[in-house]
Amino acid sequence: xxxxxxxxxxxxxxxxxxxxxxxxxxxxxxxxxxxxxxxxxxxxxxxxxxxxxxxxxxxxxxxxxxxxxxxxxxxxxxxxxxxxxxxxxxxxxxxxxxxxxxxxxxxxxxxxxxxxxxxxxxxxxxxxxxxxxxxxxxxxxxxxxxxxxxxxxxxxxxxxxxxxxxxxxxxxxxxxxxxxxxxxxxxxxxxxxxxxxxxxxxxxxxxxxxxxxxxxxxxxxxxxxxxxxxxxxxxxxxxxxxxxxxxxxxxxxx
Length: 254
Known about the structure:
The protein is α+β, with helices and mostly antiparallel strands. It is 56% helix and 14% strand. It has a five-stranded mixed β-sheet, with helices on both faces. α1 (9-34) packs antiparallel against α2 and α4 packs across α5.
């Protein structure tokens, strides 16, 4: 099936074909309706009306529409680059915040979809990794954590790097039990990930704080609650998960 979007070949073909037909139709209509040609001259003129657009308009329109397609692809690629963290290939802070806010605003008046969770995943003792092994090893640790998170979430979920060693995971429509299960799987997966520094295996761990909501909420409020839970997980010894319901949603969950 042809893709008729700005980046699809279908639009290139459509513009080329329709534009060529229009370039043929206009002079043919003029010759038939307004010109008083002898039969032989009319036949010659109609032949030119068809051949010239085929020889001139078709390649020009094809080249024009192809360039438009290339521009659309380049613009889409630039948008991806602008919204992606260059190190970890997840959303950057600005794009993550904007998309979560957009979702929360879109479902504000919907009873069915007005639920989900925000997780904040923070690398434990990350400064010591940089201090002991250097920033290249620290960057590799962040890539491992980001890859572990991406491998555990759904296509509809959002993952972003929202701080130096801090990641946000937005789970739209997620139930409290599902959010808790995802948070725990992230913790366990990172803990079991293979990370080597200076040729030696080194353990990684993350602390996860989360806020589950089932009411209208904005990103700033959601982040504040999740961040407090992250602080609690850190204070409780790190390599832990701490989740709670947003006030007004339901009883607290730990």
